[in-house]
Amino acid sequence: MTNLQQLRHFAALVEHGNFARAAEAAHLSQPALSRSIQALEASLDCRLLDRHTRGISLTVHGQVVLEHAQRLLAGSRALENAVSQLDNLEAGELLLGSGPYPAARLVPQALGRMASDWPRVRVKLLIDNWQGLRERLLRDELELFVADIRDLSQDPLLSIQALGVHPGVMFSRPDHPLAERRNLDIEELLEYPLAATRLPESVERELSSVSGREQPVSIQCDNFMVLKALVAQSNVLSMAPWDVIADDVSAGRLVILPLRHNSFNQHSAYGLVSRAGHTLSPAAQAMRLQILADAPP
């Protein structure tokens, strides 16, 4: 798995142009630096460098990885700097909101670190769909929330920071009648009940269009844990960003339903949302940084 240390070594190698100078700058032996670069290439399954007598040159893949590495390393430095300024955060309360999907993985990871770093900060977490969270934010019942932002992006009352995306997937229990099928169409999926959270308008329109149904969702529930339990014990299907069911798929509790190419293309659209023109409290700033540390680039 790619890590920041490997990216630091890669960036140093590009900066210095050869292994000897880069290894010295990184306080490594040349064999250790070479192993780190090889491990990065193996984790990404591509060649990043062309090695020759004059030094190294970047491949096309290497150029792309370098751009992302520089952004990630800059973000890591910014996070460390910002967190170091909050060492005196010994009290306070954070009113935090989350959509159902971020609440299944992204927010608990960030909240766990927050609780470890600043145990005296009290956090009240509310889980709701993006509409309910927006209303509560504007009533000052929340200071910050992370949720799908597709239907919020043009709202002048909000300050929004988009996060990276995860591909969307349809999933079922492992022994579902469709689990062994390939190249499924949406029409075949919707022969079975579909359960989902409240969908963004763009997703609902696409699902209605490809299915030919005005109301394609049979069961709407904004508690994703309930949706997963429902899918695990019935023929009900559901949809979600990949990150929130990756562990369940790896453990064999759920399976991804392979859709025909271009039959339904969706992805997550998480974002951090606060009130426009309002300065975040130290606790909210700290939580924002924790979430950004886990969000995909």
From TrEMBL:
Signal peptide: none annotated. PROSITE patterns: HTH_LYSR. Pfam families: HTH_1, LysR_substrate. Residues 1-59 form the HTH lysR-type domain. The keyword Transcription regulation applies. Keywords: DNA-binding, Transcription, Transcription regulation. Belongs to the LysR transcriptional regulatory family. This is Transcriptional regulator. It comes from Halopseudomonas salina. The lineage of its organism: Bacteria, Pseudomonadati, Pseudomonadota, Gammaproteobacteria, Pseudomonadales.
